[in-house]
Amino acid sequence: MTEKKKERINIHEYLAEMEDIPGTRVFTAQRARKGYHLNQFAMSLMKAENRERFLADEKAYLDEWDISEEAKKAVMDRDYNAMIDHGGNIYYLAKLFSTDKKSFQFAAGSMTGMSQEDYAKMMLEGGRSPEGQRSIKGKY
Amino acid sequence: MTEKKKERINIHEYLAEMEDIPGTRVFTAQRARKGYHLNQFAMSLMKAENRERFLADEKAYLDEWDISEEAKKAVMDRDYNAMIDHGGNIYYLAKLFSTDKKSFQFAAGSMTGMSQEDYAKMMLEGGRSPEGQRSIKGKY
Amino acid sequence: MARVTTGITSSHIPALGAAVETGKSQDDYWGPVFKGYQAIRDWIAKPENMPDVVVLVYNDHASAFDQNIIPTFAIGCAEKFKPADEGWGPRPVPDVVGHPDLAWHIAQSLILDDFDMCIMNEMDVDHGCTIPLTMMFGEPEQWPCKVIPLPVNVVTYPPPSGARCYALGDSIRAAVESFPEDLNVHVWGTGGMSHQLQGPRAGLINKEFDLDFIDQLINDPEALSKKPHIDYLREAGSEGIELVMWLIMRGALPEKVRDLYNFYHIPASNTALGALILQPEETAGEPLEPRRVLSGGTFAKA
Amino acid sequence: MARVTTGITSSHIPALGAAVETGKSQDDYWGPVFKGYQAIRDWIAKPENMPDVVVLVYNDHASAFDQNIIPTFAIGCAEKFKPADEGWGPRPVPDVVGHPDLAWHIAQSLILDDFDMCIMNEMDVDHGCTIPLTMMFGEPEQWPCKVIPLPVNVVTYPPPSGARCYALGDSIRAAVESFPEDLNVHVWGTGGMSHQLQGPRAGLINKEFDLDFIDQLINDPEALSKKPHIDYLREAGSEGIELVMWLIMRGALPEKVRDLYNFYHIPASNTALGALILQPEETAGEPLEPRRVLSGGTFAKA
Ligand SMILES: [Fe+3]
Ligand SMILES: [Fe+3]
Description:
Chains A, B: Residues 38-123 form the Extradiol ring-cleavage dioxygenase LigAB LigA subunit domain. Chain A has helices at residues 11-18, 29-34, 36-44, 48-56, 58-62, 69-76, 80-85, 90-99, 104-110, 116-124.
């Protein structure tokens, strides 16, 4: 039988820690809310007819959504870092790069500032090391 | 922190007890599965255009659904006990009697074998007593 | 910091809304019900009692959720929620305005407390949610407070246990208390009391059970939370199971509470009706006068 | 009576499906991955190992659920589930055929065990569910077993805790054991291992973390279940959080298990990949030969 909770996680500390990871935006409520319409736009690309309409006139399609002009520009530029800054989540945005017939590796690589070749090479050699990438504050 | 469950309810006993209440069909998985299409049909009446189509030709509308002929007859007869026997649930079926502009009291009364007047009178006098209505096996 | 100042229970039957909309709320049948609620309406209208936000616990009656998706506990995090069309057109009431900041905070906190919430960002609300608002606030242009709808499955079996509901309430309280803004938050448990809407046993009412339930809810909720589902079904009718939702409200209050008001009436259409105002003993206001009202059914003869 | 005979972990990345469909599964890049899986495919193809039903734990990657509805734990109780169109058309694989009798039984049992499940009777399944089937069974006309999809939210924060997942697995095991039919049931935990698909830190792989995780999963899951989310995120990348789902699989097995097979490879596209076969020690079969395979990345140099 469920009992009342005896120990609780401090949610403010929990959420603060999520912001302490270098080069990473954890998809918290704050981001989910900010990116709601952007992510729902991306979901709409799960229908072939929407993909066609979008590809035929990206701006016109985007204008049907309650998305800021900046975020629309990020979409049209295929700037995934910027889309994530606008609250996008990679699994939602996957519908966009899939519409472009691009892979997860392409999308991930595009966010690192590396060329696709260098990114692929880094992955083949064992991927990015977590060394120094774990904590902004702790620098470890 | 959640721990593994130490004591468990025996689900077979739990479900068996649900069948031990006089004049009552508890909406268990078994009934939910049996009544799936009937209940989804009822849900479809949440749209005004569907209500109009249904009222204009009940049989034609019902024929669009994967519902047995017997269950369709129960719907057309507004036989709520029979609908419930076919897996209907009263909150789903509420869309049907609402379409008919009938109340919960009308629908409930119609299942008791009493006239609407006698049912209303019983309610005003304090409702049906639970005496002898609690358990089929226990007769209490 | 935000506080759960008050727990309220209320019936949510559609017939109450119909009585208001057809001008029957003062007739012989409905008069005593609305008279019983008038005391709550007067109380809640006072600025010191008016909630900033209500966490409104109710069950969706096959409106937002059909048989394709049945969440045990959902929480509405949207900006607003439209009244559902339950077959007679949407209720002519204002949209329910949410409080996404607090709702998301509660949702996140509950998941960290190991409740497996279903987060909703678009959801229509049915009579389970809007009737209590009508009963408390009448027919305003806009509802006077924000509402976080918290639908609980009590339709498809099994619903959550009483103990699970009670613990959920406790975690809602903790979540509210960790929200930095200064808010007067109510938790309302709706539905119940004894009623059965189906089959030859329809119309069942169990006054003794209901009055005991209210008493235990106030004084010994921990023991009450252990009541198995079958007892609700046998004693309070098949739809009496809605009462587990009252335990969510009760869990959001401390062990010791004061009942400011305690109204019980038989019948409202097919059901017995109970409406309570509870406050934490330490911060409780004055009881209403009269504090306890019993009306209808066999009480009428007394 | 039904039994959880086996726990399996598997990657579920879409690139694996693309490799199969474009005939690249034997090239230099994908060859070692498919070689590593071949041992599992041969093992599972034996009639004594072939499951009657798989409880397939995965996360929906914004396919069945959008931002409007985010269930923490859902369970698919339908007759069948169609592959989702994730933006490139549905995967060209058979429909996933469910086992409604067992699925509803598990769903009901889990709710009685105080898990707040979301019951799904219509749901498309995305690569999280279908890729593991492709990896185990290749490209058949029909999948050779029934599947109960169990999607877990690990996308919108917070996901369920490791401890919650581990306890859920234990309750799944108990539910399976109370199902009267004689069934060989597998529980598969999918996703992981270390990976990050976003931002300048994309491409993170943490071999040490992953190998420790596998070791602890086998030998000390209780302690592992207490690992906080932040550790997954820091150490295993933002999408490495998928590993909490492996704890559901592990919770469905007893304390002592034997690892029949233990395959770890770097990289599959952006991720490290781990594929295990675990069985309860008391009823475990013979380990595969070789029992442990490490390939790719820095292993290649060794
Ligand atoms: Fe109700
Ligand atoms: Fe994944």
